[in-house]
Amino acid sequence: MRTQVAIIGAGPSGLLLGQLLYKAGIDNIIIEQRSADYVLGRIRAGVLEQVTVDLLKQAGADKRMNEEGLPHDGIELLFKGKRHRIDLNGLTGGKRVMVYGQTEVTRDLMEVRAQEGLTTVYEASHVQPVDFESDKPKVRYEKDGQVHEIECDFIAGCDGFHGICRASAPQDKIKTFEKVYPFGWLGLLSDTPPVSHELIYANTERGFALCSQRSATRSRYYLQVPLTDKVEDWSDEAFWEELKKRLDPEARANLVTGPSLEKSIAPLRSFVTEPMRFGRMFLAGDAAHIVPPTGAKGLNLAASDVGYLSQAFVEYYKEQSEAGIDRYSEQCLRRVWKAERFSWWMTSMLHNFPGEGEFNTKVQEAELDYIVHSEAGSTSLAENYVGLPLV
Ligand code: FAD
Ligand code: DHB
């Protein structure tokens, strides 16, 4: 088999890249180690920046998002028992975010790909990028007991944090930067109406909490938990009781509880790989970087990476120019590091850090007080939250 771009991984970055390339007339095949249902079963991000919304439109996968997504003009910060609104729209000259789940984004991208009859190989094992430092790269994999090889011009490593692409990069040419946080997020999805119209990010003495949503009838909540906790330790009742304790009286009174549809714990990590290109292999999304979820940036960074990468391939094939692919890593990393900084800052300001003591708590409260009462402070949060412009 031969294609122009072989994409490893059918998460949001691989599927979006595939669709953007197809729209630009560039051939691609996606190789994914799991089944489509498994990929769709992972409940993750929920907030899309305008840049991501625009790319989904460009990919022709925006119909259901436009009908069912929830545009949000603000968020609320809860600390010292009171909520304060950040007017995202007013502070950014009219920008907003779209609340629409990663599962739905993935499903929409899978559907348009299937409609166009494009090839995705699911349940491929032993996937391996080969010869990417030559001008004849290949992807090798096994399926139904047989070894297959795809010859290509380029490999896109869209295979997430635990993928094979970053792991295959030459060790003397790669540098990684990492920060691991001493807690995780326990998430719960339920068919209950959201506690409030807008998202609430709460700093409390019992730890961080986030009230998010997927629709008028489906909610997503998160609690900061110790890394040692297991999902099995948390009954639905225990989750709701703890969440109530971390809310303000009005939200507590409004909270509708119900059985969980899904519950999982995610560790929090900051991680960046430099560079994001190794010869003819390009890393994108979680394969190259991880942010703690507090700033809602993971999925959005994955989308902006593949926005840059698709543009670079268009320049290569349509204008015979390598300028885009040569610029790719540096261009992405400038944006990535700003999102890393924002996500680290939101995480530092909103969580309870074991062992940091009361001085840390007082500084967090002062910072939150400054952010909500200073236009400069609120604007800085707002412009990062809605997403910095592409450069
Ligand atoms: P992924 O979604 O990880 O997709 C990579 C794909 O590659 C997967 O389908 C995987 O099966 C496949 N793959 C892996 N290895 C191979 C291989 N060897 N061969 C072939 N295929 C392979 N972000 C937020 O903004 N908010 C959140 O609340 C949030 N929660 C999260 C919770 C968890 C548990 C995790 C892991 C991430 C969370 N994120 C969140 C981050 C966000 O979901 C990711 O940034 C986003 O999924 C990145 O998309 P991706 O396509 O780059 O990677
Ligand atoms: C969601 C997740 C986040 O990390 C975040 O900051 C906002 C919303 C969510 O899953 O809805």
UniProtKB/TrEMBL annotation:
Instruction: List, alphabetically, the Gene3D superfamilies matched.
Output: D-Amino Acid Oxidase, subunit A, domain 2, FAD/NAD(P)-binding domain
Q: Which domain of life is it from?
A: Bacteria
What InterPro entries does its record include? FAD-bd, FAD/NAD-bd_sf, HB_mOase, RIFMO-like
> Where is coiled-coil annotated?
none
Query: Which ranges carry the FAD-binding domain?
Result: 2-343
Q: Which Pfam families match?
A: FAD_binding_3 (PF01494)
Q: What class of enzyme is it?
A: oxidoreductase
Which E.C. number(s) belong to this protein? 1.14.13.2
Keyword Chloroplast carried by entry:
no
The UniProt keyword set, sorted, is: FAD, Flavoprotein, Monooxygenase, Oxidoreductase
- GO MF terms held by the record: 4-hydroxybenzoate 3-monooxygenase activity; FAD binding
SUPFAM superfamilies on file: FAD-linked reductases, C-terminal domain, FAD/NAD(P)-binding domain
| GO annotation, biological process | benzoate catabolic process
Official protein name in the record: 4-hydroxybenzoate 3-monooxygenase
Gene behind this protein: pobA
